[in-house]
Input
Amino acid sequence: MNKSLSKFFTVMMAFFVLSSFSVGNVGASADNTANKEDQDQGITFYLVRHGETIFNVQERMQGFSDSPLTEKGIEVAENLGRGLKNIPFVAAYSSTSERASDTADIVLEGRNLKLIKDKRLREINFGDLEGAYQADVMKHTNVASFQKLDYTSVNGENMQGVFERAKASLDQIVEANKTKGGNVLVISHGITILDLVMGLDPKAWDMSKGGLPNSSVTKIQWKDGKYTVQKVGDQSYAENGQNKLTFYFVRHGETLFNVQKRMQGSSDAPLTEEGIEVAEDLARGLHDIPFSAAYSSSSGRAVDTADTILEGRNMILKTDKRLREMNFGDLEGAYQADIMKHTNVASFQKLDYTSVNGENMAQVFARTKAAVDQIIADNQGSKKNILVVSHGITILDLVMGLDPKAWDMSKGGLPNSSVTIVEWENGKFTVGKVGDTSYLEKGTPN
Output
């Protein structure tokens, strides 16, 4: 459902749940057998709403009817699978609807666990309105009844019926697993899960939030014959499982060659006093960014800048020569002013130094991109921030290769100790801020 209609439905559902369910009777079947010794092992249910579907996007009524997961739905389900990878499940169940079982298969990939399907875990049946646009349903003559999620007048279900079948399914899962206990995965649907939750604990969910997000997790514990709702609509598992890396590319601090305006590529020069000071300011500005890994060019000026940023962090810096600055060949160390008198100056203005045993932009991009791809291979599978300290031309070459419109070349080169952010998610690069000095400014003492 869309947010507005989902919110409307779930608010009305709250009213219906509170007025129709007897909370004392909800746990009765389990309470009556609480004295049995074999029920001492607790069960934690991880109730997951399926991933986004085509009908979700189209805002159609999707209950017993079904539609496939969207590309985004599959992607977020994959994120959820990674986010749940450290949770050991003793059993897994899903609705018989394909959108639920497909989500379950994605989450369970790599686990040796049989998926059990149960039609009692399906979504509410909207009857004759299955597949209809939600907006059209609001014009129906029986809309007042529908607002209470009662579709019996159009051959569908009401909330009481959904609760009874979903609760019966949970009770049977308890019976099958209570002697061993543990975590049980259940993939179901938004209204069904919320109906179950509100029937067990009417105060468990703030209905002003609307419906449950796709691929969210709702945790319910069963222990000593009683159900306890622990968390509802938790998206942290999917967020933590995002296959996303955020690169913080930093140009090294100011060096002696920078001040002298010499060609400094594969050659090296030490950081100036100001370069060290500004790198320290940058370190303070980046203090609150949790880095999972740190890399730098093998050039001393980059390594020294990285070491300054990482001071106080328990991290190992990895160096990679592929992250070095462009090689200016025979012109390394020459004064920039003298380069403009060279016979090949037209080529140099295009940053092509192959005629003097150096590199061109395509070569720099190829090696830098290869280094970044290796970093991705070593770190993907979760959501991480990666620090990479490199060089002005190298960083800009990479950025412009990924997105030619990312930087206005009239601004010139990147400032020393500036930050350029590039995000990688599920195989796609997105260039964020380029040459950002805000972290530097944030860390500069007043």
